[in-house]
User: What shape does this take?
Amino acid sequence: MSKLATQDSVATLERPSNALMWTRGLKKTYRKGSHAVDVLNGVDLEIEAGSFTAIIGQSGSGKSTLLHLLATLDAPNAGEVHFQNRRVDDLPSKEREKLRNEEFGLIFQFYHLLPELSTLENVLVPKMVQDGFFSYLRNKAAYKKRAMELLEMVGMEHRITHKPSELSGGEMQRTAIARALISDPSILLADEPTGNLDEENGAEVMETLDRLRQRENLTVVMVTHDNGLAKRADAVIHLSGGKVI
Assistant: This one.
């Protein structure tokens, strides 16, 4: 194990060769009444920059829990999550929010589009949150141009004025992908992005992700229960019993 260093009061481990993100000894336990349920039990992994990594395993194996820890949406009971040159799991809440908004693109099974906003407006939401009202207004034209580029990349340029209720599941997910990329993230973290779609729409979403990964030079980490989709990945992390096997 590499030596410990201190940067900005955060203990960091020496970065593994070509790893954009890595974990050491991740543990996560949930309580159900008086019972403790160990979901993750010492997970070590490394995500190479520019790679496509699939996380697979049976239901309840901890796939989504692991992704949420990588995304700093939850905190481990033990262990560390590192991104680039710093530890991120123990950052203050505001710094984790900033990291997610600027460096991480997040995609979920259930889209999480705002129903009152159009397709274009939903893609712009992260910039509205990131900038604040007046700064967003100053930069709106540039952000709108970038949003339109992304919507064209995902095949949604003809649906920019439609609201989520007027879109199919595949269209909503492609909109969510464009939204995840509006801040030009370094890594895309996707939790069952095709899990709520039929086979045809799921295939279209995966083709979109593959195309964008190459064009945008993205690192992608995807949770999936579909071994067929996992075969597209450069690396596969198989979880069982809370550990990588």
User: Anything to note?
Assistant: The chain has a mean pLDDT of 88. The chain has one domain: 50-75+92-244. The chain has seven helices and twelve strands. The helical segments are 63-70, 93-102, 119-131, 133-153, 169-181, 199-216, 227-230.
